[in-house]
Amino acid sequence: MSCSNLTMLVSSKPSLSDASNLSFRSVLNPFQLPSQNSPSCSLSRSSVTPVQCGLRELRTRIESVKNTQKITEAMKLVAAAKVRRAQEAVVNGRPFSETLVEVLYNINEQLQTEDIDVPLTKVRPVKKVALVVCTGDRGLCGGFNNNIIKKAEARIAELKDLGLDYTIISVGKKGNSYFLRRPYIPVDRFLEGGSLPTAKEAQAIADDAFSLFISEEVDKVELLYTKFVSLVKSDPVIHTLLPLSPKGEICDINGNCVDAADDEFFRLTTKEGKLTVERDAVRTKTEDYSAILEFEQDPVQILDALLPLYLNSQVLRALQESLASELAARMSAMSSATDNAVELKKNLSIVYNRERQAKITGEILEIVAGANALQ
Amino acid sequence: MTLNLCVLTPNRIVWDSEVKEIILSTNSGQIGVLPNHAPIATAVDIGILRIRLNDQWVTMALMGGFARIGNNKITILVNDAEKSSDIDPEEAQQTLEIAEANLSKAEGKRQLIEANLSLRRARTRVEAINMLSQ
């Protein structure tokens, strides 16, 4: 954007008394060399707005603001459409997790008295922690990626204070580039998220966590993602992924545990014409099993098969919620960008019109003065 | 009397309709399920699921999970499931070769575990295609 260095104050009451001065300035402007990226070329939002551009530059500037506005509005609509798709993905995953929770409960009831020794639930003294960080792939989503990365750094500092070793599994291009630029943070693996998290990607992450935990390289795996609270609010949270509790509880790092059956699902609906989010706390009914249900294998073996499924669905849910929060953040960022663009265009148009009118007035005065002089 | 089969993965429902018979690979071998089977719960290994609909067999590659067989209702929960018609033979073969190469390169307990898992999965997919062509 090229602007001349000449300042022209636009006051709310334009004074046309100094017409000759204005005409002089408007002639000077085209000959001024435009300065690149001059920090003084600013448009502050007050009633007195200093503008440093000439007529032609103003016109190109208004055009570019109009184009930017179109782009940001389109991005907002695209993000809104994708939130709906993300929501559908969550709903599609519901039958799986409901059935899984039901079965988990029933098996646990039958195993109450027995000693369960499944490797995934083994609680070891913690020496090394793996942190799975879920960021987004693209920018222009407000503070979304920054919030997650700040939370990750805070957690790393905490772990360092506790004297624990740590490693990172980074998911998403933004997190990848952040950690790549910081080689002093040990990163285990960089993974790319897709546009819509599928079971395959969740499996890749779960496999990684699984092998790290089983091979005893780490003693705890934590999942760091953004929980989708509402369209304008999202919280980065840390959940303990491994070791799993046999009852299927999802535990926070502070030890607050949520029963797997008390799962919350979010829904995008409209209330009074505006998009809102409703969270339904769905309590899946854990019906009593037919007592004659036999286990083909050892109950322990069955748990061994069930818990990786649960791990996968947890990771997938976290990825889906992260995606939904990213889309919501992008929606609100693009919406405010559009509003800013509209306001900027309005201000620039006012300035442009004033300057154009001043120029015309000056020319008229010149002509009249010249005609007078000839007489 | 027909069986109602539901194959669920974490992000979609792969199969939800009536079948005549299925053959499932479990940790303790393959089991065939006909209508009016006794209710059992079993872990499902990474392997092939064969479904019979009216004398026609459909093969599906399952990536491990759990199966519950109730009153003529079978629910299979797996990490991932692919119908053999959806698998690209060349791509599956390539994945198998990459997995085998990774296994021979694997060092340390952790890489071995990972490599083994991906090898079994790739092998299952290739088997699913081969079975279809039989």
From TrEMBL, chain A:
The keyword Plastid applies. It is found in: Plastid, Chloroplast thylakoid membrane. The keyword Ion transport applies. GO terms for cellular component: chloroplast thylakoid membrane; proton-transporting ATP synthase complex. SUPFAM superfamilies: ATP synthase (F1-ATPase), gamma subunit. Pfam families: ATP-synt. InterPro entries: ATP_synth_F1_ATPase_gsu (IPR035968), ATP_synth_F1_gsu (IPR000131), ATP_synth_F1_gsu_CS (IPR023632). It is a peripheral membrane protein. Belongs to the ATPase gamma chain family. F-type ATPases have 2 components, CF(1) - the catalytic core - and CF(0) - the membrane proton channel. CF(1) has five subunits: alpha(3), beta(3), gamma(1), delta(1), epsilon(1). CF(0) has four main subunits: a, b, b' and c. Produces ATP from ADP in the presence of a proton gradient across the membrane. The gamma chain is believed to be important in regulating ATPase activity and the flow of protons through the CF(0) complex. This is F-ATPase gamma subunit. The gene is LOC127746753.
UniProtKB/TrEMBL annotation, chain B:
Transmembrane segments: none annotated. Its main location: membrane. Residues 86-129 form the ATP synthase epsilon subunit C-terminal domain. It is found in: Membrane; Plastid, Chloroplast thylakoid membrane. Keywords: ATP synthesis, CF(1), Chloroplast, Hydrogen ion transport, Ion transport, Membrane, Plastid, Thylakoid, Transport. SUPFAM superfamilies: Epsilon subunit of F1F0-ATP synthase N-terminal domain. GO terms for cellular component: chloroplast thylakoid membrane; proton-transporting ATP synthase complex. GO terms for molecular function: ATP binding; proton-transporting ATP synthase activity, rotational mechanism. It is a peripheral membrane protein. Residues 3-81 form the ATP synthase F1 complex delta/epsilon subunit N-terminal domain. F-type ATPases have 2 components, CF(1) - the catalytic core - and CF(0) - the membrane proton channel. CF(1) has five subunits: alpha(3), beta(3), gamma(1), delta(1), epsilon(1). CF(0) has three main subunits: a, b and c. Belongs to the ATPase epsilon chain family. Produces ATP from ADP in the presence of a proton gradient across the membrane. NCBIfam families: ATP_synt_epsi. This is ATP synthase epsilon chain, chloroplastic.
